[in-house]
Design goal:
Radius of gyration: 17 Å
Number of strands: 7
Strand order of the largest sheet: 2-3-4-5-7
Shape: globular
Largest sheet: 5 strands, antiparallel
Structural class: alpha+beta
Strand content: 25-35%
Helix content: 25-40%
Distance between the termini: 35 Å
């Protein structure tokens, strides 16, 4: 497990750089998408999420995302989508762990507060972890904490690297 934690810490600077770059490039990438369509070409899609195009908020029924937008409103919605899912492609394809043959070695889940801990192992015997917690705050808010490699391979190929600390509002 120590090797997994050291690998996680070694990847952290690259992850932060990709996320920052995603935020900085988001307006330009969204503008490009108005010309190329909702899926960015090639590795540019890696600045967003791999399991949905830039209109994913509509398909996933995310509050505030609207169908049939055009022009500046569509550009803004796609900019927001990239910022909502920054660098997931890089986190999966470059920093991720292969999903094929991965098994869960240990899992611990609690409901209140919502807390999840996983230790997983790839087909080649490489161990990795996932820690998720929704830390209650005041006024219906909570702090979403995700560290390690996400226990679900959203792109179907890799468990993507996760470093999330973000305030959220209960639905």
């Amino acid at each position: 497990m120590t090797a997994s934690i050291l690998r996680y810490l070694a990847y952290l600077p690259a992850n932060l750089a990709f996320v920052l770059l995603s935020y900085l490039l988001a307006p330009g990438l969204a503008a490009l998408s108005l010309l190329t369509g909702p899926r960015l070409p090639g590795v540019l899609q890696w600045f967003s999420t791999l399991d949905a195009d830039l209109d994913g908020g509509v398909a996933q029924r995310v509050r505030g995302y609207e169908d049939a937008l055009t022009g500046a409103r569509l550009w803004w919605q796609r900019t927001c989508w990239i910022c909502r899912n920054p660098a997931h492609g890089w986190q999966s394809r470059l920093l991720g762990v292969p999903a094929a043959g991965t098994v869960i070695i240990k899992q611990q889940i609690t409901v209140s507060p919502k807390n999840q801990w996983y230790v997983m192992e790839t087909a080649k015997g490489v161990r990795f972890f996932c820690f998720k917690r929704d830390q209650p705050l005041i006024g219906g808010f909570y702090l979403k904490l995700w560290f390690g490699w996400v226990n679900k391979a959203y792109d179907g190929r890799n468990h993507h690297y996760a470093f999330q600390i973000g305030p959220k509002r209960r639905s």
